[in-house]
Every structure is written in structure tokens, then in C-alpha cells.
Amino acid sequence: MYCPNCGKEVEDGALYCGECGAKIGGQPKKPQQTGTQQTRTQTQSKKGPGRPPVSKSAQNKKTGDSFSPKAKKIIIAQVIVLAALIAAFVYLGTRNSKPESAASQFVKNYNDRNWSKVYDAYHFEEDTFINRDAFEATMDQSDAETLSSPVGGYLNNGEYIYRIRKGSGYITISVARSLEKSFFFFNKYEVTGVSDSGVAVQSVTVPNISGVTLKIDGITAKNTSDDDDAVSYNVRLFKGTHKATFSGADGMFTENTYTFDTSGNSLVSQIEYSDSAKEEAAKALEGYLPDITENRIKGRDKSNLSDCFVSEQRAQLYGETLCTGSYSTGSDTKDLGDVAVSRCAAVDSASSSYSAASGIPVSVSATRTYQYPLSTGNYFTGTCIVRGTAYMVKKDGKWVINTASYY
After folding, report:
1. d(CA 130, CA 242)
2. Which helix (DSSP H) or strand (DSSP E) does residue 220 occupy?
3. Pick from 218, 198, 212, 214: which is nearest to 262 by CA?
4. Is 87 left (phi over 0), alpha (psi -120 to 50) or beta?
């Protein structure tokens, strides 16, 4: 049976409702209902007699709470995330809007060897070997010292100047406000200049060898001098360690790859010609002696010796340098003997200014007899003496004389 007060089902014969406590005993059983009436009656009884159904929203309003516990948790989590994003946005924006942040970032990039990010701050005048790629290669091969944290930050002409310890010395960087904004409205600062003697540009002498390609840090070197026949020329390189590679040298040097430093261990001081190259150079010079001595004895123009020298100009300068002892010369001399060579071999240069760019020094001693006319109409025997050192270089695959000296 059911409680007449709250509609709760109670046991038959119960005197009081276990739900609401209303007195029940003595009331007759409710007649049994069938079908739809029974279902409707049970539904209405559960909600209370004579009460219309109550929705969840109405119940929430009645209790003064418009959100379920699950919805509350979701909203709270979203609020926390939004607050964290706003805090991070403000923190990053204000942190990067200070000049010291730019100085600290420069130090970090430098110490992390992120050379591409510090390159622009140096404002180099670019050239064949002065560019971003060459800078990265040089710094990666060099022993870069670690920078300390920036100090100072005093204002000078609109820029903040920071002093940074580097090894036993210091560098300074300038920081100024950028025209750009960080996060649309925060101020942004950037490094506008660096004063660092350890990162600079130096002029370095490299050999100019015809037919041989020189690459420095993978970049092809080209003769930058006005003299096409110059045995060496200067290039601008970043201060530090570099790698030089020769191709097309065909066994000319003992090695084709060299590591050199702009401050001391230069490239030309390291290059050493191979034994085979020295033999080839000495043999070539010996082959030129007949033409050189005949030109001296006959008194011909030095342009005839252009094939023996690196250029016609060098032939004019050094064509007779190795020869002496000719008492009388001219076109009327005759009966030239064979060149008698007593010495023709590569030697170590006695000159302190010598470098591989000058060529292979070949010491030579030889003589050649001839007949020259006397005033009486008779002929007398003269001797052309060859004695000195010729510096041999390779041009277009052929060993020729660069310079020569008599001793």
C-alpha cells in the first residue's frame, strides 16, 4: 500500500509511514490500478501528491546553484589556465623589454657558439671571405673564449653600454631600443654594435700558383692584385684559424691541405714543395741554360727568354742575372760550346724573407765557352759563367723562373 501523505509505498499493515511518519494504520488498501493509470499514479506518488514535475534547472535555482559540480570544475580549470597564460605573457613581455635582456641573449648565443645569431652585431664590410658562412666556419675552427655576464648598462647617446669579460680582456656591446615591438606593444631592445679585438678582419698573404686552385674554408681564392703574374697576393680573412686546400697541384706540395692561423702560423710558411717538384724545377732550369747563356753571349733582346720566365717583364729583369764573365758579346760571336753544368739542384733559401710563394730555390753553377773577334780579325775564347739561384714556380703546368740572383 502507499502513504496517503507522501505516496511512498509502505508494507501492508504498517501504522506509520517510514518516509514522512504520517499515520496510516486503519486505512483500507488502495484499490489495484491497471495499465497507464498505475504508472501515472506511481510517478505522481514519487514526486508527491498533487505536485507537478520539477526540472533540474528549477531544482538548481531552488537551491541557489546554477552550475553542476562538474561544470564548476571545468570553469575553474579554464580560469586557471587563462590566468597562467596572461601571467606568462606579461612576464615574457616585460622581461624582454629591458636592455639587459638583449645583452644577456648576445652572451648566451656567443657561448652556445650560435655564430649566425651574433654575426650581424659586428657590422663587417663583406668581401669574398667576409660573410656569414665564412664567419661561422672561422669561429667553429677557432678557440673562442667564453664570455662572462654583462655588467654596466650605462646610457650613452641613447645606447646602453655593457662591459663583458672575455678571457683576460674585455669586450663592449651597445644596446638600443628597436623600432619593432615585442608582442605588439612591449618595447624591444637589440645589440647594435660590438667592440671586440678578438673578432676582427686581417690581411693575409696567400700563394698565387697558376693552374692551381686554392680554397680557404671551402671558398675559392682569386688573385686580387693588379699583377696577374704575382706569386702571392693578400686576402681579407676573419682573425682566427682557417683551412686551406689546394687542387690541381699534381704532387707539387708534400700536403694539399693546411690549417693556418692569421696571427702566427701563416699558410705560406707551412707550404713545403715535394721532392719530385724540386727535381722537376731543377731539370727545367737546366734546360733553360742554353737559351739564357746564348742570349747573354749574343747580346739579344731579353724578350727571347719569355718562355723561360713567368712573364716577359721578369725575363727583361732577370735574363742576365745568372750570367757573368763574358768579356765580349755580340752577334758576331761564334762557336758556342755546350753548357757545362757542375751544379743544378734545389736548396733551402738563405733569405729570411723567403716563402713558398717565391718558388723553389734552385742553385746553379755552369760555364759555356765561345769565340769572340779581336780588333786584329782573330778570334779569342771567352767563357760565360753561370752562378746563382733561380726561384722556380709552376705556371700553366710548366716550371719557369720567377726571380734570380747572382752570387
Report:
1. 13
2. strand 219-220
3. 198
4. alpha
To which H or E segment does residue 362 belong? strand 360-373
Q: What is the pLDDT of residues 309-367, one digit of tens each?
A: 999 999 999 999 999 876 788 999 999 999 999 999 999 876 767 778 788 999 999 99
With cell 605573457, the residue in question is 89
pTM of the model: 0.64
Name the strands in the sheet holding 186-195, side by side, starting at the edge strand that comes first in the sequence.
Answer: 151-156, 159-166, 169-182, 186-195
Amino acid making up residue 83? A
Element (H, E) at 71: helix 69-95
What is the separation of C-alpha 376 from the centre of its chain, rounded to a whole number of angstroms?
78
User: What is the DSSP secondary-structure string of 232-294?
Assistant: EEEEEEESSEEEEEEES-TT-BS-SEEEEETTSS-HHHH--B-HHHHHHHHHHHHHHHHHHHH
For 393-405, the DSSP string reads EEETTEEEEEEEE
Separation of alpha carbons 314 and 302, rounded Å = 9
